[in-house]
Amino acid sequence: MNSSKVILITGASSGIGEATARTLAAAGHTVILGARRTDRLEKIAAEIRVGGGAAEFRALDVVNRADVAAFANFAHKKFGRVDAIFNNAGVMPVSPMNALRVDEWDAIVDVNIKGVLNGIAAVLPIMEAQGSGHILSTASTGAHAVGGQFGVYCASKYAVRAIMEGLRQEMQQIRVTTISPGVTTSELGHDISVDDTKAAVDQLRSIALDTNAIANAVLYAIDQPADVDVNEMIIRTVRSA
Ligand code: NDP
């Protein structure tokens, strides 16, 4: 089954979100891209359209609940439905706890947890009225095991898994999928402010997956028949421990 769906994607200006937008559009879906860097979104959406795909974009700060609601309402108004949302925007300014980067802790909690909650809140009424929908969120392998210096980030991703599992248990006609990537090539961690931590994270890139691996997992979950709910996917390179 591969009928065209209307799909919102947050964090679509780079990395996993960008790759997923391109992959879903190439498969015939209509994608609505959201992020803060609209210059990037405009370029990606234009490239998708040149390739024959359907893409729109909107400026979006996932921390702002009204912004996320406007993002969903834009798509609903324009296309008459919202079939799926991929809550993918995230940040990873990791650091040792005793560095007390408390503003960065706040940013992780705000974007990675509240951003996902805002996405859920924006689409649930629309999907419940439709009697169908699909909510996908990006967690991480860091939602399955904690590493030093990643405590706050991992906590945010454990929270995403918990929220999604709670949602899944409540939903009947709405599908719920948590995507947990391992290390993937992207801009994630560009905002790490502790030099040693940044160097260690940069080293991890040597075992990074291509973003298309994650995009293909999202496409797989979305293109399943309506009665098939893919709840969790972990995608990592064979070289990972
Ligand atoms: P990138 O840094 O390349 O992409 C992050 C995206 O999130 C960007 O599009 C960015 O757009 C967006 N974003 C950040 N803050 C906000 C905000 N406040 N409002 C709206 N959009 C925001 O990294 P990835 O592609 O790797 O990250 C995507 C997701 O994958 C994240 O949730 C990340 O935690 C998760 N992940 C990544 C892994 C990896 O190794 N790369 C592994 C496991 C999980 P903009 O700045 O334009 O707003």
TrEMBL record:
Record's keyword annotation contains Transmembrane helix: no
EC id: 1.-.-.-
Domain of life: Bacteria
Family annotation (InterPro entries): KR_dom, NAD(P)-bd_dom_sf, Sc_DH/Rdtase_CS, SDR_fam
Keyword 4Fe-4S part of the UniProt annotation: no
An MF annotation (GO) of this entry: oxidoreductase activity
Keyword annotations from UniProtKB, A to Z: Oxidoreductase
A Pfam match: adh_short
UniProt record similarity statement: Belongs to the short-chain dehydrogenases/reductases (SDR) family.
UniProt name for this protein: SDR family oxidoreductase
Biological source species: Piscinibacter gummiphilus
